[in-house]
Amino acid sequence: MTTIPTPATRSDDAVHEATRDAMRATLLAQGFDASVVETMLPAQAQLYRVRQAVAEATTALRQDLPDSEKTWAPYLRLLVDGLPDVCPCPCPACATGPCPCPGGDDGHAEVCAMPDGELHGDCADRYLGVPDLAVKEMTRGVIAEAAWWAQRRGLKRTVARNVKREAAGRNLLHSDGRGAREQFIQATRWMVTWLVDEEKAATNPALKVKLPPRQEAGARSLTDQEFVEVYGTAVSTGQDPALDGLILRHLLIQAVRRGALLDTTCGGLDVEGCRIRYWDKKKKTWRYRPTTSTHMADLVIHSLTRGPRVAAPPDASEEDRRHGIPALTGSSPVFYGRPVDTFDEHGYFVSRTVRPISRKRIEGLFARVRRHLPWTERVELRCHDIRHTSGRMVFKAADQQAAKLHLAHDGGSSTDHYLKERLDELAKLKQQLFERPLHDEQ
């Protein structure tokens, strides 16, 4: 027997629809024409659904938190699009290709190894999203269910990658998808908070969904000997040792993150003051950090040598006509791969195609080091480890305040502001630590 919920257990919108249906049936039974009946009924309730909420919240996210849109927007889309192609089983057979299991009463395929005690133990289960759910009907359970599927997709990605890594004899990854679960919950919390502020929702059930505990951070600092080994491997195994060495020296001397290195421009190089300007995305402000005179010279020479150039006029010197004239602007990047130059039949410079480095160039550098140094593969060496190394070196040579200023972790309380080290003292410290480069590739 099917039990129909009573109006007391329904939402206001469901009660409204039930009332309209009852009135429609009554009027039709009294002999009214169907076309006339619709005009006699109360107006249909306009529901604000998840599909519309996600679209509007994504637009607001692009305006309010543009740096978070790339990460959070895809997770918000899970509520609308679901994961129709993802089965809940994390076994290698189901993670590396289409699920081989018939599911339902037919159970699992022989190659499937569904773990026991799973929330969803049937490979036929799918998450289809809740695009037509009214926002006011979103509950903690709805969000927790979507978060489970977000984590399961992340786990299946790790399993698929580990199958390839194991076949190649590489170290296995340990991610279990909890980072994806956290990002989904954080994104949903922000969205529903925005809906509450816009008076499109009354409460925020996402705040009741617990964040998963984080795994221990994988980043670590390198010893001096380890960094020398990494540096030597980088400049001896690639096709562009000058660029590889410059990238690693910049990461060590300036302790910047990958994004700050890529965003460094020629306009941010203060040659006279021997300092470099960075944009702090978190605090929305420009920061200047000192560097060494040798490193500043390396950056200038690198950008002049590999940056944009234009053809010299006919009355220019022979050298300028052969090599072109630098055409750097304040917005020109500092780091470039080898350019591609074009010359005429007389050997005079005509044009240049520059190749600013990208995120993949840095990732490729560290992937190459991990391939050639087994111990770096075991510790999963990455770009951020060099930042840790630089901070540790400054901390050991000075104190915590100097390290905080060096890493741009200074600030906080007013006391921290007044007690923090001066930039000129940090500049002297850098000269002592980093003035002599490890190698000279130029």
Structure described in brief:
By secondary structure, the protein is mainly α. It has helices at 12-29, 34-40, 50-64, 66-81, 92-95, 140-167, 178-197, 224-237, 241-254, 258-263, 293-306, 318-323, 359-372, 374-378, 383-397, 400-406, 414-419, 423-434; strands at 269-270, 275-280, 285-290, 309-310, 325-326, 340-343, 349-353. One of its GO terms (molecular function) is DNA binding.
Detailed description of the structure:
By secondary structure, the chain is mainly alpha-helical. The protein folds into 3 domains: 7-40; 50-86 and 126-208, DNA polymerase, domain 1; 224-434, Orthogonal Bundle (hpI Integrase, Chain A), CATH 1.10.443. It is 50% helix and 6% strand. It is built from 18 helices and 7 strands. A hairpin with a 4-residue loop joins strand 1 and strand 2 (275-280). Mean pLDDT is 87; it is low at 1-10. Keywords: DNA recombination.
Secondary structure topology:
Elements: H1 12-29, H2 34-40, H3 50-64, H4 66-81, H5 92-95, H6 140-167, H7 178-197, H8 224-237, H9 241-254, H10 258-263, E1 269-270, E2 275-280, E3 285-290, H11 293-306, E4 309-310, H12 318-323, E5 325-326, E6 340-343, E7 349-353, H13 359-372, H14 374-378, H15 383-397, H16 400-406, H17 414-419, H18 423-434
Antiparallel strand pairs: 1-2, 2-3, 4-5, 6-7
Helix pairs in contact: 3-4, 4-7, 6-7, 8-9, 8-13, 9-11, 9-15, 15-16
Protein name: Phage integrase family protein
InterPro entries: DNA_brk_join_enz (IPR011010), Integrase-like_cat_sf (IPR013762)
GO molecular function: DNA binding
